[in-house]
Amino acid sequence: MARSSWTSPSLVRPAVASDAPHVARTSATRSDSPVDLASRSASRSCSNDASVSPRSRRTMPIVWCASDATAASSVVARTVSARLRAPAGSANRVRSSSSASSRSTIPSLPIPRRAVPIPCPAKRGSASVGHMAGDWKIGSDQRRRTTDQLRQFRRANDGAVAWDTEAPADFTFLYHPDRVLVRAEHADEFEEAVSRIDGLLKDAPQREAALLDGALLRYTLPPRARGESVAEVLDLLESEGALTPGRVSPDHWVHVSPQGGSLCPAIEPLETGLTKPWPADSWQERGDEVSVVVVDTGWHPPAGSDLRTPWLKGVEGDDEHNGPDLRQYAGHGTFIAGVVRCIAPRTSIFVEGFAVDGLGGGGVLESDLVIQLEEALKHEPRVINLSAGCRTRQDLPPIALDVFHTTRLRRRDCVLVAAAGNDSTSAPFWPAAFDWAVGVGSLDRDGRVSAYSNFGVSADVYALGRNLVNAFPDGTFVCRETPDKDDVRVFSTGMARWSGTSFAAPVVAGLIALEISLNGSSARDAADAVLARSVYDSDPGVGPIQVLGPPYS
After folding, report:
1. Contact yes or no for 314/348 (Cβ under 8 A)
2. Domains observed in the chain
3. 220, β-bridge pairs
4. What is the pLDDT of residue 490?
5. Residues annotated as region Disordered (predicted)?
6. What single string gives the DSSP state of each residue in 109-120?
């Protein structure tokens, strides 16, 4: 079916040059060396931050985005066997990157001595002094911010959060301290592997839940004989050949992806004097209504009838239950729904909340997320926006999300758009890194790739993600993160300014929904059409990229 041009008269937008969000494909060839990371950070400093305190340009907490790249210059033990040869220690969180091949015959194996956590290199921009291993005391503002985010995240989730490094500020991924996920066809292998290693667990793993029609199983591990973490248990099973690598994984925490930190948006929300959204709300004369589901923190119902945010009329969703004292991550889903509706006015939007009553602390366990995604499909969406993601153990694809795609999503005329994360790294950030998802990185308003944005396999395309303005609940917000910790921000205009790949993703989701509306395309064809309208450009910190033509360049 013929597709209309971007300049179709049916879509009317203000003729303002700065109001054109850039969308660009990225090259996956950039190096992750510390030198290149520092060079990119320096070259991509943005003039759009002139009105923002330099202190607020930091990395975000774990819940909404992956942690910064940690390219080590020192020698780090890479296998479980190497760590097992080290003297015994008492810490219980170890970065794992082991692999092992399966064996046809698995003898009964004695449990080896406890592995010692390895030191983890600092993130880009972090201080090498002032770090106390295994403690919350850390050196730089960037590391303090990550730690602040992690502390808040653990508190919001009753402490059910473990991480893979000794120092909290250095974590790569987060996971439930007692759960693992297994595909149903690998359950017998997992149960047999555990039983063959003497003294590893004090009891047999308990099969807690069968999800996605039984295709995905969730187990709870009983207390470990020597206090091993879930990650250490899997390291051991794989290193001894008792379990094929990748067939069992921790139940990872998936978190929102605003700008610059390990867990969260690039920055905490900022007040704005603007009364109109940016990108501006458009007027669409023709086209079919398209269903879009935003899977996020929830919905702020007053925004749908507020005269200050008329573009959100008709949006529905799970109530966040915001009061005058705003919680961390409040308004995230509402802001994203606003961006989608501004780009694609003829959309029916439902905001699916991460957690019951919106009290999820900005994140959700991988096994719970697929339940939310399954609920989202009941609205028959053509586009799902997920401005959240995570790094994983050994950077392997998360099992639950992979099973969700295999058993649910690929059977639907629906495309999932996901944030690429805010750690300026090429390491996979899931689900954006899946080939069946559209991963979106962030651009500044000058068309350069944002310094915080992930790239490579997680970013199929880039869109505007710096200093967007859209709907936000009125109320008082107390900053929880260094360097703005305890600062008080008062929101009274129904709007906020926010940055991160979380907000770049709905720009692309909106463009895909608009293509479906105008031309009746399938969801996948619409996504391909949006990506195809591109020309080559060059970013000084990234290299060659592809940018969509007018009016989105």
Report:
1. yes
2. 11-53+271-548 (3.40.50.200)
3. 179, 206
4. 95
5. 1-54, 85-134
6. EE--PPPPPPP-
User: For residue 144, what pLDDT is reported?
Assistant: 79
Beta pairing, strands 534-539 & 495-498: unpaired
The pLDDT of residue 29 is 42
Give the DSSP letter string of 417-466.
EEE--SSS--S--BTTTSTTEEEEEEE-TTSPBPTT---GGG-SEEEE-S
Residues with a catalytic annotation lie at 296, 332, 502
Block residue for tokens 């948006």:
265
Residue 209 has φ and ψ, to the nearest 5°, of -155, 145
Say if residues 291 and 325 touch (Cβ distance below 8 Å): no
Task: Provide φ and ψ at 291, rounded to 5°.
Answer: -85, 125
> What mean pLDDT is predicted for residues 196-208?
89
Cα(533)–Cα(45) distance, rounded to whole angstroms?
27
The string over 60-73, giving b where at least 16 C-beta atoms fall within 10 Å of a residue's C-beta and e elsewhere, is bbbbbbbbbbbbee
Percent of the chain scored above 70 by pLDDT?
70
Mean pLDDT of 380-392: 97
Work out the angle at residue 455's Cα, subtended by the Cα atoms of residues 442 and 136, and round it to the nearest 5 degrees: 85
The full 3-state SS of 398-412, as one line of letters, equals: CHHHHHHHHHCHHHC
CB 25 within 8 A of CB 438: no
DSSP tag of 30: -
Opening angle at CA 121, ends 39 and 93, nearest 5: 145
Distance of CA 83 to the CA centre of its chain: 30
